[in-house]
Specification:
The structure holds 2 protein chains of 2 kinds. By secondary structure, chain A is mainly alpha-helical. Chain A contains 14 helices and 2 strands, in the order ααααααααααααββαα. Chain A has a two-stranded antiparallel sheet with strand order 1-2. The chains are: A mainly alpha, B mainly alpha.
Amino acid sequence: MTATNRLWFEAMRYTLIVAALIIFLIPIAWMATLAFKPVAEWTTAISEITWLPKNPTLGNFEFIFTGETDEVVITLPNTATRPIFASLVVASLSTLLAVVVGTLGAYGVSRFGVGKNLPLSVLQLRLFPPMAVMIPVMMMWSYLALVDTFWGLSLIYGIVTLPFSFWLMKTFFDEVPREIEEAALVEGCSQWRVFYRVTIPMVKAPLATTVLFVFILNWSDYIIALLLTRKDWVTIPVYMNSLNTAMTGEMYGAKAAMGLIAAIPPVVLGIIIQKHLVRGLTFGALKQ
Amino acid sequence: MTTSTTTVTGAPELSLAQQGVKLGRWMTLPTQLLLVFIFAFPGAMIIYVSMSWWGPLDGVPWYYAYESLNWFDNYAELLEDERFWGSMWRTFIIMIVVVPVEFFLGLGLAILFVDNFALKRVFYSVLLMPMMVVPAVAGYMFYILFQSNGPINQLLSLITGYEIDLVWLSDPDNAFIAIMVADIWQWTPLMFLILLAGLLGVPEDQLKAATLLGANWGQKFWRIALPKMRIVMVIALVIRAVEAFKLFDVMYVMTKGGPGVATETISVYIYKVTFLELEWSYVSAIGFAVLMFLTALGGIGIAILANAQKKRLADVVD
């Protein structure tokens, strides 16, 4: 590539990426500024709503964390602290469950050819419309005394996101060159050791992608948590939905503040995971 | 490319293959257990209840559903239910518009991100952000953004120079567009994420070799990267197609399926029948029918996938 071509390409790249960023950021910017607007600024007619808050305030955050603020007369029965804790616990545990079980199962199917029907059955799990299956699941959970417990919620999340971890990992395991594994086997390494010492390091990038995606799904679910929690383990999305009153209507500012806080854990996880998202050198290790 | 089970021959190695199968069984066991756990009772209950008139207001537990057994009346009703077919059709339209758009946008962005450049990490993090906004919140944001005097119209007026005051959420066609925009906004980053992981898996030495041989950018993409990515692409498409089919949170907040039934997708329809009309036996029939329908689609997807994998193996042998 000549220098001019190179320059053109770079210019194009930055233009396109910046354009995409701006479009992607519009709703997020809206949410972020809304979170700092006082009540008066989001209860006015919509045409009067400005992009930037005229009188920035932390009132919305104060409201969800302490249950009261000078701007509104009502007080909240529950603050956001407990739902944040519940969401963190449940999303982490369920992600762990889904990724560990899914990765093991995917490797078993991909390498050793066990469970020929497993891929389709796992996929079926995700094909069921969640609404339709929630009635029996609600009953089952109440028979087993799993309603409103963190393990009950983690279990169902782990199960509904299992198809993603299973399928993503199966795809990537299928793609890993087997010659390296075979070399390790010939060296006398046991198959289990080959799996976690040789294969897992090779699929670090896909594994990181899978963890992030599964975590986001578990973190943001609304309907399952709505049906399977009562008060102790209410998660952020369910809590957020309760931020409205007959008197004030939807508390948009408080919701935006909550939404902003709710975006922090996935973003942090994304940043942590990013360093694993580099092209693996492993493929180069193989002389093809 | 050969599997470890076929490369080895002879008596001691045979036990290696057997060991593999044994280990494979242990590794898949947790998945099997979870599947049995979640399928056995709910599956049986759905099929059983779907063949009766039982509902939560009957005052008897679900296992007495045989008292109003009607065999296949619910399914017969389903065939003639215009609202059901309408919602299926709308869901399908959303799926076939939204998934390809997300795919190509995601692929385009992924291609831009393959090699290193300044600020790559920052851009990458920001691009993933829409996915990280809880869908229910995203719904509220779009609800405000799409109001007739709202920010979207203000922006459009600013860009085009004309006074634009489109009615978005209470016009049937525009509401449809608005929920698609919201879905594309939220899930393009996922396509980008999966496809980028796939692109990064393309062996670098092959790309370098091609560069040395004088291949241009397009050739490298079409001849080397694309064949290697075929399977990842199918997976990304299947995952998004399935999720698009179940679209609920964002659009329910935005339109509640309205105006009228203009944006009523299958999930919204099921939700309404479950919690507003309380016809639980009918919901079970819908759920079971949709599962069967999607399983057929999934089966086709898996067949395509197996085919792609075979082709891929053939490529490697060449």
